[in-house]
Design goal:
Layout: E1 6-15, E2 18-26, E3 29-33, E4 36-38, H1 45-57, E5 59-73, E6 80-93, E7 103-109, H2 111-116, H3 125-134
């Protein structure tokens, strides 16, 4: 059996000093997370973060930079997550759009409000990504290289 990590994307979206989060149900609890989800087959990382953010929060975004790549081993399951976190700009909300299954609502919270809710963070990556963003961590999107198969002649 070949081991493979779960590749996920996440969006760090700031507007007027507040950050876009999703309140969602996970593992029997109501938790807070940045808009995030799994990379689908054939999808680019950038397309995935745009799609996941829209599905979970009804917000259209534009990724502007890569915040970082984070590896997290789930403490109670044999799962390793490899998270590509993107800094993104909020473009507009699609009012009335239904959110993904399990997503309760989108929230805009200040860093202090996010830290005060640390016990409800879906994973330690929520706080770590916030701290890295506030520290000015930022990498250009062209750091990511996408290769598509070359069609046969």
């Amino acid at each position: 059996m070949i081991w493979k990590p779960n590749v996920v994307v996440a969006a760090i979206v700031e507007c007027d000093g507040k950050f876009l989060l999703v309140e969602e149900e996970a593992d029997g609890a109501v938790v807070l997370n940045q808009p995030a989800g799994h990379l689908d087959e054939g999808e680019t990382l950038i397309d995935a973060v745009i799609r996941e953010t829209l599905e979970e929060t009804a917000w259209h975004i534009e990724p502007t930079a890569l915040l970082g790549v984070y590896r997290w081993l789930h403490p109670s399951k044999p799962i390793t997550y490899l998270r590509f976190a993107f800094i993104a700009r909020a473009l507009h909300e699609e009012t009335g759009r239904a959110l993904d299954h399990g997503c309760l609502r989108a929230l805009w919270l200040t860093p202090d409000e996010i830290r005060a809710e640390h016990m409800r963070h879906r994973s330690p990556q929520v706080g770590r990504c916030l701290d890295d963003y506030l520290a000015g961590t930022c990498y250009p999107l062209d750091l990511l290289k996408e290769y598509a198969p070359v069609p046969a002649p």
